[in-house]
Amino acid sequence: MFGYLSDNIKAMNKPKLPDYIFLLRPLILVPVWAYAVFGYFQKALSSGTTVELGFWKIVPLNWEFPLILLLYSLLFGAILILNQITDYETDKLHPGIWLIASNKFPKKTAVVEMVIITTIALIGSFFFFPAALIFFFTLFLGIVYCVPPFQFSGRPVFDFITNAIGYGFAPFVLGWTAAGGDIDWAMIRASAPYVLLMAAGAVNSTIPDIEDDAKTGKITTSVKWGARKASALGIFFLLGSINLSIIFKDYYCLAMGLVSFAFFVKALVRDTRVDYLKTLHIAGPFVIFLAGAVYPPMILAMIAVYFAARWYYPWRFGVDYPKVGK
After folding, report:
1. How far apart are the first and last CA of the chain?
2. Disulfide-capable partner of 222 in 104, 192, 199, 230 (CB 3.0 to 4.6 Å)?
3. pTM for the whole thing?
4. Are 117 and 103 in contact (CB under 8 A)?
């Protein structure tokens, strides 16, 4: 009898093939791609290498940029695995769609996958220097964000700063350098509105998890200051992004900032978990859509990831996820 139960537990804990992909959390990787696309696009605009389609300009298509993004996705996915391992206690409160916290994916297997894909990504990055610098910088950010004694994910201010740099600045720089740009003042200037935009999203992303984070001792910005003060800080960053976008005449970032601003203000006024989630679930896809407008393969990638997730999560977890805007 006990042998039978043991076999059943092992079977439940045995990963399925799609689990190895979704452990990387591809739904989170898509916005990372979008910021890399905008970095590439802004450099192409400044150097006059965009492709003109009538009145529209798009990123020139080549094989190198998608390959860099693929390698970067492996590295970023490895960091997201690390985050799931170190956030196990928090995720366990509501296992939901978390593979490790719901015991559908063994920690040891996750560590092996993390090490393998990190190694592949770092070795591959040296073929696209200076991309290798950004890869190692991103890995460093991932470690200090996830791992004690640093664990910036549970420290006020440090949490959104590392997210703004890791999700906004680093991918933007990756795209910029992939387009032939240097890591210089022009790059920092061009990236500033995007970093502030990501900082706003990073602050608001901690608000829906206030209760669970507090229970496990994670003192995020939102836990420290409360939902409304954190939301006001997010709006402050948005206003900074909007102002810089106007000054730099970056109308793509301006559009993203204005759309986000409407939902951020609504969330601050209504102060509900649903409205805070909408600042992420509606503004996020809009950012990806605009990235697809300047780099058409992004639209295909977004559609592929979305429908793959719409199949995977009901099949694996029995939940209707993801839902845009909910």
Report:
1. 44
2. 230
3. 0.91
4. no
Closest listed residue to residue 159, CA positions, set 171, 145, 148, 177: 145
Q: Which residue has the tokens 């900032």?
A: 257
DSSP class of 179: T
Over residues 52-72, the pLDDT tens digits come to: 876 688 888 888 999 999 999
CATH topology of domain 29-317: Farnesyl Diphosphate Synthase (1.10.600)
pLDDT value at 9 more than 60: no
Tokens representing residue 97 in the block: 């769609």
Q: Is the peptide bond before 149 cis (omega within 30 degrees of 0)?
A: yes
Query: Which residue, among 48, 46, 43, 105, has the nearest Cα to 80 in the 3D structure?
Result: 105
Rounded CA separation 164/158 (Å): 10
pLDDT computed for residue 169 by the predictor:
98
- 59: amino acid identity, one letter: V
* Domain range annotation of the chain: 29-317
